[in-house]
């Protein structure tokens, strides 16, 4: 969830002064990264097929973008896209709209989509907050995935964490009744904060009747175990999945 490029001109003006949270927190953090030659080729070869243009003046025509009507899942920050590609392949009945501003990551997922023939993914290289504000109406999503957002470990940086009350309320309002919000983190203090925020949101309810620590659910089968996660589990590190549903 990061990018070598700044947000577009006028982004700050999109948030009124009575919404300080949205003027501070973005759905990504800036991160350096080199776009390799294979990723550059993927932009040229597969970009026209899988990349969507951000448009602030009109909602996204989902059926036209995907060429079909199907449940729509928004993924916020997919990193290098490996898990996203696996989920989309495991759930061909769903459409996946994926927001990421990190150029190498977008190129990597384009390569996976093009070479793997994954037709149910479309990518927006733009801040997901603005995509929600301007391209996706409320009650338009069947699910939202936010996997391993930056935990901002230091206490003085906690205000930069993505999962905070105003943002979760925004996500909840964009979900259809019965739609789900799936968060995952490998940082226990962040899991604790996530659970507190989710419990405080009146539009959401935990999908697990008897949740584990910090309200966590068993890892859903559709979320693959990443190499990084598997290595952490072998070292005794925890991973927490929280899955809440819009009432």
Any descriptors?
247 residues, alpha/beta, Rossmann fold, two-stranded parallel sheet, 9 helices, 19% strand
Overview of this protein structure:
It is a single chain. The two termini are 28 Å apart. This protein is α/β, with parallel strands linked by helices. Residues 1-25 have low confidence and may be disordered. Helices cover 34% and strands 19% of the residues. The strands form 2 sheets. An 8-stranded mixed β-sheet has the order 3-6-5-4-7-8-10-9, sandwiched between helices. The chain has one domain: Vaccinia Virus protein VP39 (Rossmann fold, 3-Layer(aba) Sandwich), CATH 3.40.50. The longest helix has 14 residues, at 37-50.
Q: Which structural class matches the secondary elements?
A: alpha/beta
Query: At the fourth CATH level, what is the homologous superfamily?
Result: Vaccinia Virus protein VP39
* Biggest sheet architecture: 8 strands, mixed
- Order of SSEs: EHEHEHEHEHEHEHEHEHE
> How many H/I helical runs?
9
Helix-residue proportion:
25-40%
Report the radius of gyration as a whole number of Å: 17 Å
General form: globular
Strand order of the largest sheet: 3-6-5-4-7-8-10-9
At CATH level 2, the architecture is 3-Layer(aba) Sandwich
Please give the CATH class.
Alpha Beta
Low-confidence runs: 1-25
The count of strands amounts to 10
Question: Overall pLDDT, averaged?
Answer: 89
What's the domain count? 1
Beta-strand share of residues: 15-25%
Quick overview of this protein structure:
Helix content is 34%, strand content 19%. The chain has helices spanning 20-24, 37-50, 62-66, 82-90, 103-116, 128-134, 165-174, 188-200, 227-234; strands spanning 2-3, 29-30, 51-52, 72-76, 95-99, 121-124, 141-147, 175-185, 204-206, 240-246.
């Amino acid at each position: 969830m990061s990018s070598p490029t700044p947000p577009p001109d006028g982004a700050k003006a999109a948030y009124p002064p009575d919404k300080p949270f949205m003027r501070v927190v973005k759905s990504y953090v800036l991160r350096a990264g080199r776009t390799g030659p294979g990723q550059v080729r993927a932009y040229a070869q597969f970009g026209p097929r899988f990349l969507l243009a951000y448009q602030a003046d009109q909602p996204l025509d989902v059926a036209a973008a995907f060429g079909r009507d199907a449940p729509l899942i928004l993924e916020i920050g997919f990193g290098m896209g490996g898990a996203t590609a696996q989920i989309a392949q495991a759930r061909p009945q769903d459409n996946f709209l994926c927001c990421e501003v990190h150029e190498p990551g977008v190129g990597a997922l384009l390569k996976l989509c093009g070479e793997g023939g994954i037709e149910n993914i479309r990518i927006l290289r733009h801040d997901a907050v603005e995509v929600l504000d301007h391209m996706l109406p409320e009650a338009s999503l069947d699910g939202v995935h936010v996997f391993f957002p930056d935990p901002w470990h230091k206490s003085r940086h906690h205000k930069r964490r993505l999962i905070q009350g105003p943002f979760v309320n925004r996500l909840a309002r964009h979900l259809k009744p019965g739609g789900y919000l799936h968060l995952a983190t490998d940082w226990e203090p962040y899991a604790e904060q996530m659970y507190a925020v989710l419990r405080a949101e009146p539009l959401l309810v935990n999908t697990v009747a008897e949740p584990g620590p910090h309200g966590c659910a068993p890892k859903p089968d559709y979320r693959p175990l990443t190499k990084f996660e598997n290595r952490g589990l072998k070292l005794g590190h925890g991973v927490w999945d929280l899955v809440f549903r819009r009432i």
